[in-house]
TrEMBL record:
Keywords: Transferase
SUBUNIT field: Homodimer.
Species of origin: Mercenaria mercenaria (Northern quahog)
Cited Gene3D superfamilies: 1.20.1050.10, Glutaredoxin (3.40.30.10)
Protein name per the record: glutathione transferase
Amino acid sequence: MARYQLLYFPLRGRGQATRYFFIDNGIKYEEINTGNKWAEDFKPKMPFGQAPLLKDLENGFEIAQSNSMIRYLGRKEGLYPDDIKEIAKVDMICDHIEDIRGPYVRMIYQNYENGKDDFVKSLEEKLQYIEKLFKAWGTDYIASKISFADYNLLDLLDDLVILSATCLDAFPTLKAYYDRMASRPALKKYRESEEFKKMPVNGNGKQ
């Protein structure tokens, strides 16, 4: 029986990190496609008028906003650090992810043809910060063990590697991390599936 529902469009977008969380941890969930009758049936019921939305079927609670959703799951499912320094690490990386994701989304939806090259060039500076931190921390994951934040970062790196296949080549520690996450057995199996391969990255077909 499903423990959660994920309400989202049939694309990776802002729902993919949550999917990764569920799949890697063997958590049963049901996905509701909001693309059908979005304006009539779904948007009016969303707390902020947008998807995704997470429903906890065990207690009836609903959580909007993708980062709030995955933090909720991390706390509830034991994938949230206990140590205050480790909490700071995952928070720092998640905030930096948004510093990259925001411009990425604007480029994809508003300025793909003219903005792609400049965005790719900007990645060198932004990714080097993560590379330096990962080298200094010396752990396999962002914290001492896997946490909700690792699924966020895996999702972002997926998008960036699709956009620019060589964007991680100058960052061996980050590339090794990406390969490590993508090779986790449940994630590897899912990522090799036709379901995953056929799912659009973004809603407008740009990637």
